[in-house]
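User: Can you write out an input/output pair for a complex, sequences first and structure second?

Assistant: Here is one pair. Inputs:
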Amino acid sequence: SQQGEEDPQALSIQEGENATMNCSYKTSINNLQWYRQNSGRGLVHLILIRSNEREKHSGRLRVTLDTSKKSSSLLITASRAADTASYFCAFFGSGTYKYIFGTGTRLKVLA
Amino acid sequence: NAGVTQTPKFRVLKTGQSMTLLCAQDMNHEYMYWYRQDPGMGLRLIHYSVGEGTTAKGEVPDGYNVSRLKKQNFLLGLESAAPSQTSVYFCASSYSLAEGYNEQFFGPGTRLTVL
């Protein structure tokens, strides 16, 4: 299976703390994307990092990519209650027209 | 600009019944996808389309059929619903595939229960 694995499966932190979630994959990729899903809603694109990039920032988000270890991490700094959601990594399956999604990390930020 | 819309939002079926889920997008996207989301399993691709009149199988296509007669619409059909098809279904679209450089835009989902 090409499915990505994410850890932790669930994470609970206090408002203001940083949240880190990790994604591992098995195939070769050209880029990796992160999505957020609020409860009962569709996924929303957060950030994309290309395979030749090691780190990327967008607001309070910081994404790293290590293609040698086939892993990526998403860091949310100074978390807010509104960041409570599930976060998914997604990548383009090698040699296919398919996006592969990770299993997701459920983040809960306590006010 | 409504983005990606899905109808219906909720549906309860009995085993053996059929139904069609409708996805519509107003962004002139070429590519459209149907996923199912089950607890602890992330999203799994059912079928996808790379343009009007084309469809292709994804990871879990059995028990589903699709059609893309118009560029803006992507229909997902269940011919004979089974309890294993109880899930949340998401439609998504993207401008192009381009090796995955384009983000996908998701609809709000359809929650389907098969009794």
